[in-house]
Amino acid sequence: MTTTVVIGGGITGLSTLYYLQKERKRQAQQMNLILIEASEALGGKIRTVHEGDFIMETGADSIVSRKSNVAPLLDELQLTSRVVYNATGTSFIYTDQGLKKIPEESVFGIPLSMQALAESELVSAEGKVEALKDYYTPNKSFTKTDSLGHFLEAFLGKELVAKQIAPVISGVYSGDLYELTIASTFPFLLDYKDQYGSIMRGWRRIKQSIWERATKSFCRSITVRLF
Question: Are residues 52 and 145 in the same domain?
Fold first, then answer.
């Protein structure tokens, strides 16, 4: 009998074990599956803390619904009914000055226009001016194997990335932006930069094209969201 050992009981290890179990059943194989986890609890970086009336996610706290494999997996695990949606569409980041609203016209903290950038309560005037270089600085060297953090910082500035973008993206990937690659997270951002000359301009135009296609299909009453 084959023995397969999965090291680590985080989301990757648990997912691997789950799919190995499915494959074992599908092929009617004799396979011994073992999961090894060093800590007392499964989940890796994903942790839910209950303190009084409050619930806090200390690791990744959201999923990207545009990923085609997310919904089927939730259905298989019978977790669809437990998904909590942001009913207001508004998100905040807690800072030393209290809760600060993320501009509505932004995706993953990335502004989709100069107005959205100007409305940010999280970034200083100097940081906003620095972010404008996205509109006139061409991409000369970045590829999809490069660091997402370095890519965003090069065109949107260090302050905007640190104070508004990184907290949002970390809520999905629970990792350091500078250790995540563009390819493994948002490969299309590099395409937007190369095609439209700007990350912000490219994402805005893609969003507009989605809306135009929806309205042509007589879907004016729906709210079109990228994620």
Answer: no
As for how many domains the chain has, the answer is: 3
Distances (CA, A) of 40 to 8, 43, 46, 83, 131: 12, 10, 13, 25, 44
Q: Are residues 78 and 97 in the same domain?
A: no
pTM of the model: 0.73
pLDDT reported for residue 67: 67
Q: What is the DSSP string of 152-192?
A: HHHHH-HHHIIIIIHHHHHHHH-S-TTTSBHHHH-HHHHHH
The pLDDT of residue 2 is 87
Flag whether pLDDT at 126 surpasses 60. Answer: yes
71 against 127, higher pLDDT: 127
Same domain, 35 and 139: no
Domain that holds residue 205: 92-216
Q: Which residues contact 65 (CB under 8 A, 6 or more apart)?
A: 71, 227
Residue with tokens 């006139």: 136
